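Quick log. Single chain, no ligands specified.
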Amino acid sequence: MSTGMVGPGAMNSQLSLQQAQESQTLQQMNSAKATNDTAKIEKGAKQFEAMLLQSWLQQAENSFATVPGAEDDDDNTTGRDQMMSMGVQSLADAMANSGGIGIAKMIATAMERTAEKAENRTQPGAAAAPVGQIR
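-> predicted structure:
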């Protein structure tokens, strides 16, 4: 009877893959901020939300992976774990692309504001916002 938990080797490879995805997404988000391209900002924000959702869903799946009294055969645990991981990733991507939980929208809005402020600071003769008015 298997515990249904992910082995140390599989867990380390999943963590390193997730860290690589996070680094890539952060780089994309930083480059999107520099260019102020709305489509790139939204794409990066959605990818970030998908990674966050994937992490949460993976933890939930691992928490509920074992059912008391369930019999698992040890031969298929590696393949099953990989398929579950891909399923969780697909679910997280689909959730983020359909609006997710709203984190992507908040991140994109904040990044667009930051990019606009940076752009206004670099433009010579940019008018300052009147006192009490938020840009």
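Residues 9-67+86-112 form one domain.
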